[in-house]
């Protein structure tokens, strides 16, 4: 029906009289004494002045509905639904008395929202009505609410009270505005106009990230900040007040917080971070968010730019010094800082000469003292200034931490989204998980960006040899990055830095350490200086070493008096480079048995000449151990040129190990360590046994290298073989529950698979997964916990509980309305089996249950019992009305009953007996007309020569038959075709 026609059906002549009767009439005046006037006191069928009962309301609603039906034209809904519509409308009108609001609030709410509240209060009204009837009901409710609000606005008390409320509100608002004007001086109109131009400029100017040092084809060097920004973590030592004499002093501990929240708890922060850790990006993020929010005026001041201009700028020259094209009104910067509205971001203390840093400190402190109340952030590499450089001025020191695996994955996904190259994401993430040295390199945004660019430039493949990756990283960190950032040329050439760095690296590799004393490092540099001409004239060893630490981006000072490389992989790479240059192949081969030398040897193969590679690989094969054979195979990735015979020998020897053809082979392969993960193939080209072996190997290595193992297993999540899928399900407990569920389990074909849950974490993960039809719970889980973690109870068809003492009452199982199979093994004394009669249960396995109510489960087709049965006859406790096809009885089950009464279940097709079987029991078996499959424990079968034959049995399984005379059994089975012993 058209809205205009329906409006005619609900004319004011029908609705207005109804509304007037619903409410009592108040007297004149503002009604301030009774204020607020609640609706439950205004409605005439509730409150103190009742003049209308609920029956009268229903009658009024009926008249309105009847009037709409009697009006000319097409009826708005079928007439036979008139009573139902009238009842629903009355229920909604009566709900007026339940609303917790007064008439002023109702008018402010509006008629549509008021109608919506009545529909919610009268939940279920309208259920079962046809579409036209529901449409009429909703429209009638809204028309009624419109007239209700019209009625309120015409009441004299409403009008007067509204005027009083408005007068009071205006007075309060005027007082608050006056107070605000007194506290905050009115900004000059020119300031406001300028900030409307300046803030969008800042947001646009700093809303793109630049990755320096990347000059690869098709790789973007800039992308939107809001797309690619990654929240990093910063740490600080918790600040505690000293304990008084005799008091306990709490130990210091590390505080972690999101880096972008650094200025939320302290107005002055000194943020330290290694090269490429994201300091400048964080400065950009703070500037952009402040500009967009408008609560602070950001100033981004890169020190390398300010120093080139000569004198450090005053606030009036901030924008000119950084090249901002907008000219502010005179005195604007001082007014902003004087009002405490500024966010001053000073970036790159380490990027200016050491002689300028004290001048910079004085300039910064002068600004802070002149303009208190603003927020200040200064960034620096860790070793540029001492630890307490600004502590006396109230600066809190924070340090950016290396990226962890989830942050790396987030960075990679955002990088590729910004680069519009999503097709390369998964393969790169798998490489980062399986290639350990690559993963150790990707610990900050700078190196992650380089890896992404290299990977995309090669159309989704990393270099055949990782030497290219390290070479590109070293070139960027040692030379190109500072040059492209517009900094002064590094005093040491790239080759000179490499020569000194590789000597330091080799010394650490030989010692088996990752840190050395600064004095030791200075001694190594001092001995090297005479042979490094470009460095010899730059000062003594201590000066040259300080320059290496500050500018190379490869060395750092983790503690007072110690030195290390920012990434262990750089140490191994440079150490291997020096070992090859010096011809130390014997040293490398002699240390091959040490797992710490694996990466050094692989990098040595990358640096070596073809003849040297062949010698080193043959030395590895000569040891004839699986681990070194696999190490030789891993080295082939880096051997660009190699004697074909050596390559073939390595591949042939490794081919006997990979892929593993059995579970035993997989276990032996896993003993070679995490190195194996990046060598595992598949699933393409593998047999089912080989695919299963690969998944077993990866599962065994999960504890030592979970990320790499997960990457291997992910490749098999679409495999069809049941054995492979069982292995993937069975290794869930070796991984993070939610991550494994998301990456593996939610992609598996669940056919014929039980999903096993043992921990609370797995229950929590399962609650967010797609439904599984077969579930197994091991250990103690309450019914509430089990049912809470099942996303769709109706999807569960098979349930297995093992060693669960809490699941004793069967009543909660009624929630699993489609449950067909239930197994309760070692679950204590289970009670209430009769509660299962409402379920379509076809299979039941019990151990230790109270069998009361078992006879009521008439839908059973398969029954397995592992406990002693009561009574003298099987029919005393087993369900006599069930048409059983399979029956499994345990060792002690029939101690009192024997098999007496078994012939009652003439539908039995398969019987499994671990209990003693005598001649009488055999006779019961002979009376089963459909028994085709029999499983017996041969050691407890004791039948005489007069035992009857079992003519219909076709398949026999005899367990524990060793040393037994099975002829006495087989002669009684004349038509058996399959006999398994």
TrEMBL record:
SUPFAM superfamilies membership: P-loop containing nucleoside triphosphate hydrolases, RNI-like
State a single Pfam family of this protein. NACHT
Q: Which InterPro entries match?
A: LRR_dom_sf (IPR032675), NACHT_NTPase (IPR007111), NNH1 (IPR054547), P-loop_NTPase (IPR027417)
- Residue ranges annotated for the NACHT domain, each copy included: 267-581
Keywords carried by this UniProt record: ATP-binding, Nucleotide-binding
> Is the keyword ATP-binding in the record?
yes
Q: Which domain of life is it from?
A: Bacteria
Protein name in UniProt: NACHT domain-containing protein
Instruction: Name its species.
Output: Streptomyces violaceorubidus
